[in-house]
Amino acid sequence: MRRIVLFLATNLAVLFMAGVVMAVLTGLGVIPPNAPYVALLVWCALFGFGGSIFSLAISKWMAKRATRARVIATPQNEIERRLLDTIRRQAQQAGIGMPEVAVFDSPDPNAFATGMFRNRALVAVSTGLLRLMNPEELDAVLGHEITHIANGDMVTLTLIQGVLNTFVLFVARIIASQFERGRVLIYLALQMLFGLVASMIVAAYSRRREFRADAGGARLQGAPAMVAALDRLRAAQNAPSQLPASLTAFGIRGGAMAQLFSTHPPLEERIARLQGR
Question: Annotated catalytic residue: which of 78, 136, 145, 269?
């Protein structure tokens, strides 16, 4: 879940900066104030896709910094040795290169996979997840993350985000140009508003990809283990979250409004899907 939250947060920040840069370039005359729609669309695509690709390119670095994850170069104990062995086996089964494996200190049971290239990705697990799950359940969660990498989910989300970023910049610019005063402020406000709507669309697509990753985890480790892992997470959901407020605001847990930004379907629905209900 964290990989998508970080990706969306970075995109919103980059999108805002892209809007500021476009406003500055317009003021300097580089981009004509009344540029033809085709030319404006090209400029918006340049910044929209550029920002999205940049977010993906720094995703591993940002995830490591945000979680203070420690990459396992040499296993320090049996747990870390087993993590490496399991991920190596699952990566071979999925037909991808061996990812970096990291552990981050957090009481929340969490895991994520990220990276620009499927053969040079990162899989990280929290200490809370290692304490919560038995070996079979943990292996299922790892299989889920490996499937995300094998399916190219981050690249697919990047392309979708790039398209949405382009239209956010384009539509905000067209609407703002209709006002005589305060065009820049209106443009930036509309850009942030439409950016939030774009984040909802990306989050909705992410929820669909979670079902495929669950199915992949079931193939790699067995459906009973995947169901047991999700059921274990469901039991732990009632515990107070220890995630930073900047992450919980995106709907990791929350009410109906937060669900619009949630990157994962309800655990009950995921379990039912695996059980064929």
Answer: 145
Q: Return d(Cα 232, Cα 134) in angstroms, integer.
A: 10
Q: What separation in angstroms does the CA of 177 have from each of 18, 37, 192, 193?
A: 17, 12, 16, 16
Which residue matches tokens 């929350």?
254
Residue written as token pair 């404006």: 40
Joined tokens for residue 19: 């809007």
Any idea how long the chain is?
Answer: 277
pTM: 0.78
> Has 136 been annotated as catalytic?
no
Buried (b) or exposed (e) across 78-107, using 16+ Cβ within 10 A? Answer: ebbeebeebbeebbeebebeebbbbbbebb
Residue the block writes with tokens 């499937």: 147
Model confidence over 116-128: pLDDT tens digits? 999 999 999 999 9
Range ranked top by mean pLDDT from 18-32, 207-221, 246-260:
207-221
pLDDT digits (tens, 9 = 90+) for 129-140: 999 999 999 999
Alpha helices of the chain — where are they, by DSSP H? Answer: 2-28, 37-57, 59-67, 78-94, 127-132, 135-150, 153-176, 183-221, 223-236, 245-248, 256-259, 267-274
8 A C-beta contact, residue 111 and residue 125: yes
Contact 179, 189 (CB under 8 A): no
Contact 21, 47 (CB under 8 A): yes
Residue 69 CA to residue 6 CA, distance in Å, equals 14
